[in-house]
Amino acid sequence: xxxxxxxxxxxxxxxxxxxxxxxxxxxxxxxxxxxxxxxxxxxxxxxxxxxxxxxxxxxxxxxxxxxxxxxxxxxxxxxxxxxxxxxxxxxxxxxxxxxxxxxxxxxxxxxxxxxxxxxxxxxxxxxxxx
Length: 130
Description:
Elements: H1 10-16, E1 20-23, E2 28-39, H2 44-53, E3 56-65, H3 69-84, H4 98-106, H5 111-117, E4 126-127
Antiparallel strand pairs: 1-2, 1-4, 2-3
Helix pairs in contact: 3-4
């Protein structure tokens, strides 16, 4: 699965600003703002634990953006290259044959085809954090 659970800190939230979200239907969103709303819990102890562990309700402001399909393939290919050299790659399933995968992405004709190339199943609704 692409999404990872993170301890919600200001640094983690700020790192997500500007990230692009690619949906299978072709919509592209950019994370413009993330607001920490409130800590979790009803009792004092639950709220204390929430604050101590950095667990907050958040609001994510996403603005729809437009890119041409060649720009989309370039953005995704760059993100895949960056992911490949990270300590904890999200796309570990393509690491063995990354150059072939990048070639397929660059020659793809649709975002649905890119999702298939990256083996993103129906449970994953978008390519996030790119």
